[in-house]
Design brief:
The chain is α+β, with helices and mostly antiparallel strands. The protein has 5 domains: 134 residues, 3-Layer(aba) Sandwich (Glutaredoxin), CATH 3.40.30.160; 155 residues, no CATH class; 105 residues, 6 Propeller (Neuraminidase); 94 residues, no CATH class; 359 residues, Porin (Beta Barrel), CATH 2.40.160. Helix content is 18%, strand content 42%. The chain has 13 helices and 56 strands. The strands form 10 sheets. The protein has a 21-stranded antiparallel beta sheet that branches. Strands 4-5-3-2-1-31 form a 6-stranded mixed beta sheet. The chain is globular, with a radius of gyration of 33 Å.
Length: 1026
């Protein structure tokens, strides 16, 4: 018989317990490629151990001052001191931050930093502008305070307790005061569209949970004062495990959740509904020309040279952003030039929620340019817009986070913004030569380039203080810059009019801080507002003039939770009204520190008074802080608004506090016990405890699993410091296969035990493909059926052997919330070993292992799925495997088929049944999904001596153990009548209901014998989709 490396079987068994992550990432999963290595130093400040590396020396002093300033302020707000010192891990750029091993999952571009509760680490990049970095530090440090207050250093509480998302993130955002005009746009839009969820439901609203959470704490301090605010925070600690919101709100505020919801809703309406009554909707200005489908984003327009076509980003596929070409007349989609999925990049770069442009159309031809994310780079992609053909993909050297491409008037250069060594500048790239030139070359954060008609100047945004202003720079002379807009407001996405007289841009200046379109007259210096919206207007692009000669603009409007594309004529009553309103309102943003101080002072004054009872709060009555003031800040205040950020504390840098990093181990995380259930009632379980050093480069894991009464353990050490990951593993696994007669009587459960020590290495070729290899020594004890003179017998074989394996692994699968949607996964490998002692001494085995999975999207929620798993052995003394049952071959008992070789294949059509089921006892669950399936499989022994009952002779070959004969016989896929004999095929239907975090699954199958179907058979099991 053939013997085989048991690791593959163990991985397959764990797949029964796992969802896509994290356990399955050990088997499939995309690669996070480590592309750089740092030599770490540690600076010790009064409250922090700050970890940094070469290239950050000049920023460390200010960052430490910001950390200590934030600590002092948050400690005062919460009246709490941290129990332990806080380790801080700094990265020079966001790209290097994304390469961290502290978080093994991919870090999205939108994640500015993170904190974690096990080692209480604060992890951030430092290439943000100082004011944004300080707010990021305050936000993440607030999380550290939350961990200390809620978990009190208890690992058990950290593992089991989880505060609601709105509470955790809302509190951090409120204390950090990090809500910008884009954040306020989102919640303002939600409120004016009457989206008023209960605090019980806020955590299910994604990004809105952050914004509503911030508003909750704003409301708490305004209505109840800072003492009640702190009381709510500390009362959460008492109900963390039970999640009893009613008790928290009654103890801290004297209100039920429902009463709080009502008062909070009134507060939001008083604050934001006046915006709706004094503004217009986008369609009152012009015509929508984006993709006219509900919930589809269309944004960041760019115009073709003729003006007859518009390109934009759109979520028309509802899965990923695409670049589409539209008619500017009616919004008809002419071509989706990036339609479908690709592995050439991960996603298209979009800065819509940052006020950044994303696309550019060459003025000379039909080329469209945009940036994409590909591993740790953001290369430029150029397409032929009319033919939908990709021209090329080009890496911009070592410049990171590239955004906002802009073709020059002659089409020979592309300007863009990017981060080089932690500094954000404007660059140009020569299309023909590939030469890259830094155009602005300064210490400011620059973005959003736009060419003048003669190609001699670039308009762009520069960040001054905490605001974005419009500048112009002469190309080739970075010292010659001109500031075009001023004042404490953000003026974004500047573009020149066709005649060169006007600069169009979007700005949050005004009473409510809404981003509206403005124009600057370069002759007079006058700025006029052109729209007056409640949501926001972005990315203005001038279209060909209207029939009456009036200028026309295309722009992106944010309304009803969606970016939509409109065009309008810069003339008429609505525009004249916007100009009048803009002239009467402040030229500053409500985010200006001078205006914020007035608002905060109003909150403090109100909080000193007893809160009004609900009955006295008249609907529509403005809250004391609900309406921003309309007066202009004084000159001194305006100057303060635009002053460079400085942290409140200045401690100075002491070089004697610098030391080399020393590795220390601590717990990284522990997974809860994952429980599964096979269709025969066998209980499956798995849990893992992981340790790591502070930087996550070195890890150790202890994994426990069980199948029925068989308990397994795995000890793993892993070094992730470089691109080549390597480690060592000790495993002790016990498993079994089932021996039963054809009438269902179980004869016995036969056991296998495998113990090994191995060294292994993994080399990622790129994000999707990798090579894995291992070399070790194993010991196996297994019960094997033998032919004892034509009768049944089991014998335990003991063997010792060195073992080696090599695998090629790929994973391109896209996931949705319900599981895989599109792509493929594969693991193709060899494992071989030679017995050096034991019952099979001298025998050698080579096994071929295949696991292929493919998913084809049909709609956004339905797909076809196929899988083939095979283990084929070559040699004598193979490991015995059991397959069948659960979602391997439905209709069979768990592990009913066995042999040293096997295969099974599955074909499924997966589709949704219900989005949500609301139970009578107040719990919701969903989505409920169904599947139609066909399963086929077989198992056999590949090289066995057996007594052939037909010939009466001893023979060797491919055999199965016949439970009715209780003896080996020759393997036959079909019998003499053409019926399936040793191949099992089933088909049927099933559905999956998520409940209490478990995928409860019912399947109904019939067995096919090659000619007809048998009776229906039902199974219940708890495992995740493959």
């Amino acid at each position: 018989m053939d013997s085989r490396h048991l690791a593959a079987a163990v991985l397959a068994a764990f797949a029964l317990l796992a969802s896509a992550t994290p356990a399955q990432a050990q088997y499939f999963g995309k690669n996070k490629v480590t592309w750089t290595d740092f030599e770490w130093k540690v600076y010790t400040s009064p409250h922090f151990d700050v970890h940094y590396y070469q290239g950050m020396e000049q920023q460390i002093e200010q960052v430490v001052d910001e950390l200590e300033s934030a600590y002092l302020d948050i400690s005062k707000i919460l009246d709490h001191e941290l129990r332990e010192r806080t380790p801080v891990i700094l990265y020079r750029t966001h790209r290097e931050f994304q390469n961290t091993n502290i978080q093994l999952q991919e870090i999205p571009d939108a994640v500015g930093g993170f904190s974690e509760p096990f080692q209480n680490r604060l992890v951030i990049p430092i290439d943000d502008p100082p004011d944004k970095r300080y707010k990021l530090i305050r936000h993440e440090l607030t999380h550290i305070f939350q961990f200390d207050i809620l978990y009190a250093g208890s690992l058990r509480r950290a593992l089991r307790g989880q505060a609601p998302l709105w509470f955790v993130e809302g509190m951090a955002s409120y204390i950090a005061d990090d809500e910008d005009s884009f954040d306020q746009m989102v919640i303002r839009d939600a409120v004016v569209n009457n989206l008023m969820p209960s605090v019980r439901e806020l955590s299910f609203y994604g990004f809105l949970a952050y914004r509503y959470g911030h508003a909750v704490f704003d409301f708490l301090e305004k209505e109840f004062g800072p003492e009640r605010f702190r009381a709510l925070v500390f009362d959460f600690r008492q109900v963390l495990l039970a999640q009893n919101l009613d008790k928290v709100f009654r103890d801290a505020l004297g209100l039920s959740v429902e009463a709080f919801d009502r008062r909070f809703a009134r507060y939001l309406r008083r604050r934001y509904l006046p915006v709706l009554t004094s503004t217009r909707s986008p369609d009152e200005y012009g015509k929508e020309i984006g993709v006219p489908k509900r919930g589809v984003f269309t944004m960041s327009p760019t115009l073709s040279p003729s003006g007859e076509l518009v390109a934009a980003l759109s979520s028309v596929s509802r899965l990923e952003l695409d670049v589409v070409v539209l008619s500017p007349h009616d919004g008809e989609v002419i071509r989706n030039i990036t339609r479908g999925f690709t592995n050439d990049w991960e996603r298209i770069v979009s800065g819509a929620f940052e006020g950044k442009r994303d696309l550019s159309w060459s003025p000379e031809d039909d080329r469209i340019a945009f940036f994409v994310r590909k591993e740790h780079y953001t290369p430029l992609v150029i397409y032929d817009a009319l033919r939908g053909r990709r021209i090329g993909i080009y890496r911009m050297g070592e410049i990171a986070s590239c955004m906002s491409p802009a073709f020059s008037p002659d089409g020979r250069k592309i300007a863009f913004s990017g981060n080089l060594d932690g500094v954000w500048d404007i660059f140009t790239w020569d299309v023909e030569t590939g030469e890259i030139v830094n155009v602005t070359s300064d210490r400011y954060v620059d973005s959003n380039p736009w060419w003048s008609a003669d190609g001699k100047q670039l308009l762009y945004n520069r960040r001054i203080g905490q605001f974005e202003k419009v500048f112009a720079v002469e190309v080739g002379a970075p010292e010659r810059k001109t500031q075009l807009t001023a004042g404490p407001a953000s003026d974004l996405e500047p573009v020149l009019s066709r005649d060169g007289r006007f600069v169009y841009f979007t700005s949050d200046r005004g009473r409510w801080g809404v981003f509206n379109l403005h124009r600057l007259d370069l002759q007079s210096g006058r700025i006029e507002r052109l729209t007056n919206l409640s949501g926001g207007a972005f990315s203005p692009v001038e279209l060909p003039p209207a029939e009456d000669g009036a200028p026309q603009l295309a722009f992106t409007a944010f309304s009803a939770g969606t970016f939509r594309l409109f065009k309008f004529k810069v003339a008429g009553e609505a525009v004249e009204e916007a100009i009048r309103i803009g002239a009467s309102e402040p030229s500053s943003s409500p985010l200006a520190p001078s205006r914020r101080r007035q608002r905060i002072q109003a909150i403090r004054e109100v909080s000193a008074l007893a809160p009004l009872p609900p009955e006295t709060a008249a609907p529509g009555q403005p809250a004391p802080s609900g309406e921003p003031e309309t007066g202009q800040p004084g000159q001194a205040e305006a100057d303060t608004d635009l002053a460079p950020f400085e942290p409140p504390l200045r401690l100075g840098f002491d070089p004697n506090r610098v030391a080399d990093y020393r590795r220390k181990w601590d717990i990284e995380f522990a997974t809860p016990v994952v429980v599964g259930l096979a269709n025969d009632g066998t209980v499956l379980a798995n849990t893992t405890l992981v340790f790591s050093d502070l930087l996550g480069d070195y890890r150790a894991a202890v994994q426990f699993s069980s199948f029925d009464t068989f308990t397994n353990i795995s000890l793993t050490y892993l070094n992730l410091k470089r691109r080549l990951d390597w480690g060592a593993r000790f495993t002790d696994f016990r498993d079994y296969y089932l021996f039963a007669t054809s009438d269902g009587a179980i004869v016995s459960e036969e056991a296998t035990r495998f113990t090994s020590v191995a060294a292994f290495a993994t080399y990622p070729l790129n994000r999707y493909f990798r090579l894995e290899g291992s070399l070790g020594f194993g010991q196996r004890r297994q019960s094997v059926p033998i032919d004892a003179g034509g009768g049944l017998a089991f014998r335990t074989f003991s063997d010792d052997f060195p073992v080696a394996s090599l695998d090629f692994v790929g994973d391109t699968v896209r996931y949705q919330s319900f599981g895989p949607l599109h792509g493929y996964q594969f693991r193709i490998g060899l494992s071989g070993y030679t017995f050096v002692s034991g019952d099979n001494d001298g025998e050698s085995v080579l096994s071929y292992n295949v696991d292929l999975r493919g998913y084809q999207k049909l709609t956004t929620r339905s797909l076809l799925a196929a899988r083939l798993v095979a283990r084929i052995s070559d040699g004598r003394g193979g490991t015995v495997w059991g397959i069948g049952g659960i979602n391997q071959i439905r209709g069979l008992r768990f592990r009913e088929l066995f042999g040293d070789s096997f295969y099974y294949a599955n074909f499924e059509f997966r589709f949704p049944l219900f989005n949500m089921i609301q139970w009578g006892f107040g719990m919701n669950t969903g989505p409920v999904r169904a599947f139609a399936f066909v399963d086929i499989g077989s198992a056999w022994f590949n090289d066995v001596e057996f007594f052939d009952l037909q010939t009466g002779t001893i023979q060797r070959g491919k055999v199965v153990f016949d439970p009715d004969l209780r003896a080996f016989r020759r393997y036959d896929a079909k019998d003499d009548q053409g019926f399936l004999r040793d191949v099992v095929a089933t088909a049927g239907l099933g559905f999956r209901l998520p409940m209490f975090g478990l995928p409860l699954t019912w399947s109904f199958s019939v067995r096919y014998d090659g000619n007809d179907f048998g009776p229906w058979h039902s199974d219940f099991y708890i495992v995740h989709d493959w």
